[in-house]
């Protein structure tokens, strides 16, 4: 048996239970058994808990996508990893897989990468989902290039603060929105060229002033419908808009059509949901490339607060209600 957090029906954080669950079965041919040392908490964990019927999960559901730990055993076809390796990964608990709020988990080898040696397990567990999301949004969807100007909404959030750093590493100029002076100082330290406090300024007007009325090349929406709507008036004709969320049914697309904008979704869950082997391998490669950047001190992931595994419900509430600066992580001690 192993300790784990799980739920048997959807709802608020009150449905989360902490207790004993069955130890994972022997590894599949392409799987690795990981002893988890830390698990990152992401907003999607709360969405899956609240509405599990929208996702391909099996009850009881052990939530969590992000994890870092030590390889305990490997399947027959696994050649890249061996017992004792320190790794990190993002694997949603879909299609009979298990999530990371547990002491042990099987992980598809394609999704794994070696943990950066300079990072603790907690730091590594905070990173995978936001690294992959930001990388796919900027490089995969928007095709970012040096010299472009990028608008990143909610720059102090999990995806936002990584996207700022990746955009700067790509040679872009970065405008980002924040809600406080504290968050403005934080994103400036990460390299943001211009900050906009959306509580005090009109974002579209501020963007146009800073770009001499030309607009940005790329806008990344990490917030939701009203922000997505605002993006259309911030992007220059033939530019890119990328969202990580579902647009509202009443979204007005006329400005986007008039400007001939290229619109993209970014959903890092797609490879596992649709069992796309090559896309899963690409996500593992993104983590390997980001590991090099983190080892070189060029990329960092901020941790807002850590909790014990048994405090998962409190941790999810903290993430949903406080909107902290950085990531929330569960520490898993055996």
Overview of the molecule:
The chain is α/β, with parallel strands linked by helices. It contains 11 helices and 15 strands. It has helices spanning 43-50, 121-125, 128-141, 158-169, 181-190, 203-210, 225-231, 254-258, 270-273, 277-295, 312-322; strands spanning 2-6, 17-21, 31-41, 66-74, 86-90, 104-108, 112-114, 149-152, 173-178, 194-197, 216-221, 235-243, 262-265, 303-308, 327-331. The strands form 3 sheets. Strands 3, 4, 5, 6, 7, 14 and 15 form a 7-stranded mixed beta sheet that branches. Strands 10-9-8-11-12-13 form a 6-stranded parallel beta sheet, with helices on both faces. Helix 3 crosses helix 4 (158-169) and helix 3 packs across helix 10. This is NADPH2:quinone reductase. Keywords: Cytoplasm, NADP, RNA-binding. It holds the Pfam family ADH_N.
Defining key terms:
zinc ion binding, Rossmann fold, NADP, RNA-binding, oxidoreductase activity, NADPH2:quinone reductase, 2 domains, 6-stranded parallel β-sheet
Which helices and strands appear, and what pairs or packs with what?
Elements: E1 2-6, E2 17-21, E3 31-41, H1 43-50, E4 66-74, E5 86-90, E6 104-108, E7 112-114, H2 121-125, H3 128-141, E8 149-152, H4 158-169, E9 173-178, H5 181-190, E10 194-197, H6 203-210, E11 216-221, H7 225-231, E12 235-243, H8 254-258, E13 262-265, H9 270-273, H10 277-295, E14 303-308, H11 312-322, E15 327-331
Parallel strand pairs: 8-9, 8-11, 9-10, 11-12, 12-13, 14-15
Antiparallel strand pairs: 1-2, 3-4, 3-6, 3-15, 4-5, 5-7
Helix pairs in contact: 3-4, 3-10
Pfam family, one: ADH_N
Subunit structure: Homotetramer.
Domain Enoyl reductase (ER): 11-330
């Amino acid at each position: 048996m192993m300790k784990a957090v799980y739920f048997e029906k959807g709802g608020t954080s009150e449905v989360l239970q902490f207790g004993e669950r069955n130890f994972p079965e022997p590894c599949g041919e392409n799987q690795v058994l990981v002893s988890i040392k830390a698990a990152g908490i992401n907003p999607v964990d709360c969405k899956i808990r609240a509405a599990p019927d929208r996702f391909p999960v099996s009850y009881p559901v052990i939530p969590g996508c992000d994890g870092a730990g030590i390889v305990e055993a490997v399947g027959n076809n696994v050649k890249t990893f061996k017992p004792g390796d320190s790794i990190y990964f993002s694997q949603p608990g879909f299609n009979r897989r298990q999530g990371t709020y547990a002491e042990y988990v099987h992980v598809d080898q394609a999704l794994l990468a070696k943990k950066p040696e300079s990072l603790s397990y907690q730091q590594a567990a905070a990173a995978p989902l936001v690294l992959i999301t930001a990388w796919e949004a900027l490089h995969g969807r928007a095709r970012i290039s040096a010299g472009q100007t990028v608008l990143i909404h909610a720059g102090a959030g999990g995806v936002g603060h990584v996207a700022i750093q990746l955009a700067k590493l790509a040679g872009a100029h970065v405008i980002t929105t924040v809600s406080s002076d504290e968050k403005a100082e934080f994103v400036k330290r990460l390299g943001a060229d211009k900050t906009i406090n959306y509580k005090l300024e009109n974002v579209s007007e501020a963007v146009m002033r800073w770009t001499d009325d030309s607009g940005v090349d790329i806008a990344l929406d990490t917030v939701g419908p009203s922000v997505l709507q605002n993006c259309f008036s911030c992007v220059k004709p033939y530019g890119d808009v990328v969202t990580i969320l579902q647009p509202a049914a009443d979204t007005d697309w006329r400005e986007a059509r008039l400007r001939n904008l290229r619109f993209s979704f970014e959903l890092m869950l797609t490879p596992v949901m649709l069992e796309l082997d090559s896309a899963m391998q690409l996500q593992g490669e993104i983590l390997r490339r980001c590991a090099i950047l983190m080892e070189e001190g060029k990329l960092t992931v901020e941790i807002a607060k850590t909790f014990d595994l048994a405090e998962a419900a409190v941790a999810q509430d903290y993430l949903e209600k406080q909107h902290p600066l950085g990531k929330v992580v569960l520490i898993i001690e055996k």
